[in-house]
User: What shape does this take?
Amino acid sequence: MLNFLLSRLMTFIPTFIGVTLISFSFIRVLPGDPIIVMAGERGMSDERYAELRAQFGFDQPLVSQYWDYMTGVLQGDLGTSFVTKKPVFDEFFALFPATLELSLCAITLAILLGIPAGVIAAINRGKFFDRALMSSALVGYSMPIFWWALLMIIFFSGWLQWTPVSGRISLMYFFDDVTGFMLIDSLLAGGNSISLFPFEADGPFFSALSHLVLPTIVLATIPLAVIARQTRSAMLEVLGEDYIRTARAKGLPPSRITYVHALRNAMIPVITVIGLLVGTLLAGAILTETIFSWPGIGKWMVDSIYRRDYPVVQGGLMLIAVMVMVVNLTVDVLYGLINPKIRKS
Amino acid sequence: MVETTQSVERPGRLKEFWYYFRENRGAVIGLYVFLGVFFVAVFAPWLAPYDPTEQFREHFLQPPAWQEGGSWDFVLGTDALGRDLASRLIHGARFSFFVGVVVVVISTTGGISIGLLAGFAPKWLDTIIMRLMDVILAFPSLLLALVLVAVLGPSLMNAVIAIAIVLQPHYVRLTRAAVISERHKDYVTSAKVAGAGRFRMMFVTVLPNCLAPIIVQAALSFSNAILDVAALGFLGMGAQPPMPEWGTMLAEAREFILRAWWVVTFPGLAILITVLAINLMGDGLRDALDPKLKRS
Assistant: This one.
């Protein structure tokens, strides 16, 4: 096990260095001078240009620039934003809870709907339910989610007027930032009331919830489709195994065979796929957050790209990649823990 | 005496492929829709009633023909600048096809070559190549493409290049994995003994036997390319207005979503139908080409 852990770590380190190299070199190696771009159409004097180059260290040789950058990275210093003048690291972690909250809600929704959908499709293989579920899954998988988000806004916000269009919570509410998760903080803040008949809900918690619903559905769409498809194929594979036939021959009730014997083994590839969906979620967060003005790291990155805020783009790109790598490594190690065959190879 | 020399001839590869492909009804429907979109893309200038950038100043945001206020002159209505939506959608098909084809060509050529190289290379080179691919895969594809385009400058061509770079590692991995499983088979050894050169071994002996998963991946990345370039266009980092690219059209339509549903609905529907058709086809291709899943 220790060998397995070490070997995974050994591949992690060069990949990490590669990731820092790529995010570092983007603004330096590719064509286009970031300082000229920052100046925009007005241009700037030669002295100011030289001063700015010196300020960002662009007048140093590339190797020593990279060295400075790496020492900064290892000390948690990713430079400061051109626009807000705040450290990139602090900005990232101030906005990260918003993205995490949205992503966790989305992946939970995707798992809660996707796994049952896949199981039902597998049990009814070739029948109506299977066809209907898998067709919907393929539609979800092919969905341009930015368009899907606009449709949701037209229907739920425009036509039914059920949900707000943007942001995390109504501007009426102020409360302390305890966990960074709006749902929890607003619940802690109190002032929530609910009555079932006639259905009425009021207070910060419900405001936060109503802001969260549409982005969650939009972000969950593709993961939901992926999980449903993966669950179905994993279930079909397991249901064909000998030990399932044995269980049937023993006379176990079909529901027990499906949910206890088959599902448990079918979950292994599904869990791997869920782990690998982190990248998909973050890419989806870029579009979802931009459309719903959700103040998370996806929108932050897009805004920084528009504003040519290079330290933010460079630092954010690296932090996001490292996060994806850490999650993938964790999934890999967990997979090795539950499946000894992987550990050996 | 019974004739024993009667040989059962193996059906042609294409015929066999079609036999399995046809079994998947969805795939066949997908193929027809795909061919339909292809037809529209090729003959766009003759099919479209108007020029995609022509503005009709008396007809801003006119609803589709079947809705009150619409007319059959503009079947799907007009956009905020009075341009015919149907004509723009028809021309948009060209861009989507262009994007899909170019991305697939660039990423397969690059990916297959690097993958073959990695599969045949000594261990150290293989390790370097694969770590490099891991690095690219660590970034969420859309984010990496977005940053690449931001640096290269927003345009359709740069978006295409960025997406091709981002999708390439998948081909490298697939090709390398296939090469490694083929490399020690007898037919490869015999080719080696017969004196086949390195390039002949790579491209003529081994590659044809690795193609099945690559073809399936190509179908997938065709649809992915269309989606991602539309997403870049939507974020203002792809095709630039007034180009009638579907994602860019959605971006222009965003501010009218609550006033004019048609300017938002139709471009997205066009993307969805095209991508769905290709994915349906991809599923059929997988069933037909993947021997593991082939029903015997």
